[in-house]
Amino acid sequence: MRRFLRNLTILGLASSAWLAHGQALDVAAAEALAKKSNCTKCHSVDKKKDGPSFKETAAKYKGQADAEAKLTKHITTGPKIKIDGVEEEHQMVKTKDPAEIKNLVRYVLSR
Ligand code: HEC
Question: Any long-range contacts for 11-16 (C-beta under 8 Å, 24+ apart)?
Fold first, then answer.
């Protein structure tokens, strides 16, 4: 049992290292998807537009373990937001590919 637990820990460490380093962030792909999905109409990396800058969002979620999950939900479920007092659904990302979505979320969080 001890040994089993230890192996499990090693496996866990190995897979989180893979997540952190194995999948390199593809900045060009993230920016292309943001453009295609109209995100750039309301967001920029460092300037506030109708929506917060990606830098602001990265700072807000810094160190939060569930940041990726929260942002993924934000851009895939169309939650209600307000722009100048008018309620609308937040833009959904224009892909269904989880890897592309994850790449975009990690791009935002690493600005
Ligand atoms: C029509 C304008 C508009 C478009 C298009 C838009 N957003 Fe937003 N977004 C907003 C606004 C406004 C907020 C702030 C909502 C709030 O805080 O209630 C926001 C919030 C966010 C946040 C922060 C969420 C949080 O929990 O702090 C992220 C990340 C984000 N948008 C990413 C995106 C991405 C990625 C796209 C493209 C798929 C996109 N947005 C398209 C207006 C827009």
Answer: none
Distance CA 35, CA 27 (A): 12
Please state the rounded mean pLDDT for residues 82-111: 97
**Measured between alpha carbons, how far is 33 from 27 in angstroms, rounded to an integer?**
10
Handedness of CA 110, 36, 75, 23 (dihedral sign): negative
Residue from 35, 91, 104, 106 whose mutation best tests the ligand 1 pocket (most atoms within 8 A of CB): 91
pLDDT tens sequence across 42-72: 999 999 999 999 999 999 999 999 999 999 9
Please report how many Cα atoms fall inside a 13 Å half-sphere around the Cα of residue 41, on the Cβ side.
9
Ligand 1 centroid–CA 1 distance in Å is 47
